[in-house]
Structure formats: C-alpha cells, structure tokens
Amino acid sequence: MEELEEMEEIRLGFENPQEIPWYEKYMLAACVKCGRCTDSCPANIIGRPLSPKDVVNGLKSSILGSEYRLEDEVVWSCVSCGACFSSCPKYISPFTFLMERRRFLVAEGRIDKKMGELLNSLRRYKNALSVPQRGRLSWLESDEEPDYYLWVGCQYSFDPLGKKVVNKLVDLLRGAGLKIATLGEMETCCGEPARRLGEEGMFQEFALTNAELFKELGVKKLIVLCPHGLTVFRNEYKRVIKDFDVEIISHVELLAKLVREGKLKVKSVEGLTFHDPCNLARFNGIVEEPRVILRKAGFVEMKRHGIDTFCCGAGGANYWYQVGEGTMSKERVKEALSMGISKMVVACPFCYAMLNDAAKGMNLEKFEVLELTELLDL
Ligand code: SF4
Ligand code: SF4
C-alpha cells in the first residue's frame, strides 16, 4: 500500500492514457458499464458534459488502441463530490482520473482566467480569497495552553456571516469548558483548492508549510471547521508528510460528543432538513454525528442524504471558476422545497455560501440556511 501511495505522490497527471499506472489500469479494466456512477454524478444530472462511465470506458478503450479524447470541458465539469466512487460496485474512482488529468492541464497552462486568479491568490496572499493575511482572525482571542487549536478556513476567516458562525462555535466550546486558540494570521490555505484544481506542487508546499507550523507551535489537536480542509488534513497530508501526527477533528464530531456528554443543549426547531456536505459524509464518513444533534432538534431527511448526498456545486474548486452558475445548489434547494421544507442546516462554509446564494437567486426570502452551531446552546 505504501508503495502505491509513493507512486501517487510523484505523478503529475497524464497526457496519454497509456501513461496511467498499471494499478489504475486494473481499475479501468474492472468496469462493468452499469452506469451507476453517471446516474449519481451531479455534474451529469445538471447537464454538464461529464459522464464518469464514459470517461472510464473511453480511457480503457484508448489504452487498448481505440481513438478517445478526454475533452478539457469534461475534466473541468467535475465537482470532486465522490458520488461516482461511492456508488461504484467495483470500487472504481472516475474522480481520480479526472483529478490526474487536471494536473496535466495545469502543468500545460490550459486553465481559464478565473482558475488563474485562484492560483494567483493562493500564491500571493496564501489564501483563496485574494485578501491580505494581515489581521486574519484578529477578531478572535486565543486561550493560553489550549486544549485544541481551531482551523477556521479561508471562507469563514474573511466572510462576515462566517465570523458569526465561528464566534458561536468558540462560545459553545469555551462554555463547555474547553480552551481554544487559533493560528491568527499564521493560518493560510490548507491547500485543498490547489490540489482539486490540479496544482499539486502548490498543494504540497502548503502541506509542508502548515505541518512545520503545527510542529513549531506544538499543535497536537486541531478542530477543522471546513470539511474540505478536514479531508486534506486527515487523509491527504499523510501522503506528503510521513510523520504528520496531528489529531484532526471535525467541529461536527466535537459538537456531537459534547451533546452526548450533556455539555451542550439542542434547541428544538420546526421544519428542518440537513444537507450533508460531500467532504463530511463521503470523504470522511461523518454521517451519524450531525444526526446526534439534528434528531434532538427535530428534522426530516433530504431524499438524497448521507453518502448519497447531492453536491452544492462548490467542490473541485468550482466555487472559484463557476462563479454565479449555481445550477447544482438551486437543484438542492428545489429538492428541499419539494418536501415542503424551508430551513436547511449545513456544516460547511462552501455549502453555506452556495445554498444562501441559490435561495437569494431564486428570490426565496423565507428560505433559511442555518449552520449546525445555530441549533446549539449552553
Ligand atoms: S466526483 Fe462527482 S462530479 Fe466528479 S465525476 Fe464523480 S460524481 Fe461526477
Ligand atoms: S459505477 Fe463503476 S462499474 Fe459501473 S459504469 Fe461506473 S465505473 Fe463502471
């Protein structure tokens, strides 16, 4: 297994499908063309030109000598939601091939203006929002000798709505007896947008810099508020940094634990549903923990929930280059409305932004998007 991970580290995508390594060619060969990946692919559902089944079989046929061209617009249609590999009976991950192809496209400079702007922001400002780092998180005080450090994430660090969520979370954690510190303006990007866009070198730089910082500050336990950051910190840093041993905890996991221990109370709210973030449910298997809170609040499941959730459309760096498109998030809001629900709880800063924007774009003044913390009290 370690050998496979090392091989993955040094590869920077493929131009010709023949360059795909042998173990991934086996993956392609296993496809039985059932089409479950395409049926569950949100990009395909909203009409983008992406069918994961066709990608897998196109690559396979190309390796066997047939003509196949993997178009750039197909590759950029992916929102890296993981629905394809989660639904595949043969454990094939079409997503992996699309991400590898992105690495090749980025290396070739085949990116559009918005993708270029995202990379420039990450390079220049060390965050994804083109905002100077100076004063980042200055609005949040840190405790001495903290039990946990908190990784806020770019989106909530700079967004006024996000500040409200973060302040509420910190009040809850402190009220439950925990000491919390942030990294202040030393917190940069986790590297996830760079990796999902295909800028692997930049991702690895962020990973190395952040791991060094954690060592210097003695960070042993890190609460991560953004599920995208959670995925890279928990699952992907280890592939770049062998001795990365920081305990990574989702804020949802910690809140559920505190509710179970009776240290936090759950408010009862009428007419709620929950939108599972892809990075929480599929990439980290965190499905039960939010429901510890939601069941007490009273909620109705979305038709597509848990690991069968439907992406808000922000993943795979789409948040930055599909600005204003919003078709996926509107599809999700419509799903809630079809159930007679107008309050949707989220646990991800990107879902929060996308679904709020969708509701506004649909002129739904009474549709509310709530963060999980808003259901809790001391
Ligand atoms: S990761 Fe999501 S958007 Fe990308 S191919 Fe798979 S199902 Fe489609
Ligand atoms: S779900 Fe898996 S086996 Fe079925 S078509 Fe997609 S890749 Fe092939």
Describe this structure in words.
This protein is 49% helix and 8% strand. The protein has a four-stranded parallel beta sheet. A four-stranded parallel beta sheet has the order 7-6-8-9, with helices on one face. Strands 5-10 form a two-stranded antiparallel sheet. With 378 residues, the chain is an alpha/beta fold. It has helices at 2-10, 22-29, 36-40, 42-45, 52-63, 72-75, 83-87, 94-107, 113-125, 154-158, 160-175, 192-197, 200-217, 227-240, 251-260, 278-281, 288-297, 318-321, 327-338, 349-361; strands at residues 148-151, 180-182, 221-224, 247-250, 265-266, 272-274, 300-301, 343-346, 368-371, 376-377. The chain folds into three domains: 2-107, Fumarate Reductase Iron-sulfur Protein, Chain B, domain 2; 115-254, 3-Layer(aba) Sandwich (Rossmann fold), CATH 3.40.50; 264-377, Rossmann fold. Residues 1-10 have low confidence and may be disordered. It is globular and about 65 Å long. Strand 3 (221-224), helix 14 and strand 4 (247-250) form a beta-alpha-beta unit. The structure holds iron/sulfur cluster (2 copies). The site of one iron/sulfur cluster (SF4) has 15 residues, from helix 4, helix 7 and helix 8.
